[in-house]
Amino acid sequence: MTEIFVGSKQLMIEDKIKNISFPVLLQYPTLESSRPISFGPYTMNVSPDAKIIERQFPLIIISHGNGGSHLLYRTISTHLAKNGYIVAMLEHYGNNRNNNKLENTTENLVTRPRHVSLTIDILLSDKWFSNYIEQYKIGVIGHSLGGYTALALAGGVPRTKEGLVIKVASDSRIKAIVLLAPGTGWFMDSLTKVTIPILMFTAEHDPITPKWNGEIVLNYVPDKSKVTFKEIENSGHFSFLSPFPMTMKNENFLPSTDPVGFDREKFHSYLPTDILDFLNDKLNGN
């Protein structure tokens, strides 16, 4: 059997209306052998700018959390790419580790979903990728505030604390979403238009997006049969991030920490497989 490897390509997406740009790292199936490549402090086994396998694949967009990075879900992205998906990890402008000036703003709640849709637009028109994307098989994975992003794109109507509707465009091209410890407080009783399949994981010990965030999805999505839900025992909010290199693990660096006794490395040996199985079922009908 032919071995599948993971290709990678880095893009800059321009938002011409806002006059800004943001990076996107793509991973995809290739027959060209991969090797350890450094992306900042992280290492991924990829083949940079390799030729993609000549067939069409579903497209998955990954949306990171507040003040996070698009590189923090590499265990998930690499596994999906190796198993037949094109994966785009975007770094949200103004809400990332290097530039968080839009944190806690309504503008951030508007631009996050917009930039996912813009990334899809660019990839579907890109001369390099467009022929290889199954345009009716697109999904979004969102962690924390990325979960908000996915729900807004799926038809959720966000509101401010004062109850004012935040005007966000949904995206009917998205056919399934995966929520990892999602932030959902903007969607109280406003998920009636969310009708696509959802896989949702929550953490047992999560002070950032506590249990009630998951309950909003379970209570307000109109068709409960569309939601597959798992609470991960003894996990924390950051347990969904790929394990950090030993040099970055520090009790003062919260994203690298987990509740006592939780094995993040072991968790990430099966989390990507659970996500893959869901996407294969809901997007590919396997």
What integer is the average pLDDT?
Answer: 95
Q: Please outline the major beta sheet.
A: 10 strands, mixed
User: How many strand elements?
Assistant: 10
* CATH architectural category: 3-Layer(aba) Sandwich
Strand-residue proportion? 25-35%
Topology order in helix (H) and strand (E) letters:
EEEEEHEHEHEEHEH
Structural class: alpha/beta
Fourth-level CATH superfamily: Alpha/Beta hydrolase fold, catalytic domain
Distance between the termini: 20 Å
Unreliable stretches (pLDDT < 50, length at least 5) are: none
The total count of helices amounts to 5
Q: Mind telling me the CATH class?
A: Alpha Beta
Spatial extent as radius of gyration: 18 Å
Coarse shape: globular
* CATH topology label: Rossmann fold
Structure description:
The model has no long low-confidence stretch (mean pLDDT 95). The chain is α/β, with parallel strands linked by helices and 286 residues long. It has a single domain (5-284), classed as Alpha/Beta hydrolase fold, catalytic domain (Rossmann fold). Helix 1 (74-82) crosses helix 5. The two termini are 20 Å apart. It has a 10-stranded mixed beta sheet, sandwiched between helices. The protein contains 5 helices and 10 strands; from the N terminus they run βββββαβαβαββαβα.
How are the elements arranged and paired?
Elements (H helix, E strand, L loop, with lengths): L4 E11 L4 E11 L4 E5 L2 E7 L8 E7 L10 H9 L3 E5 L15 H20 L7 E11 L1 H9 L20 E7 L17 E8 L5 H10 L6 E10 L27 H21 L2
Parallel strand pairs: 1-4, 5-6, 5-7, 7-8, 8-9, 9-10
Antiparallel strand pairs: 1-2, 2-6, 3-4
Helix pairs in contact: 1-5, 2-3
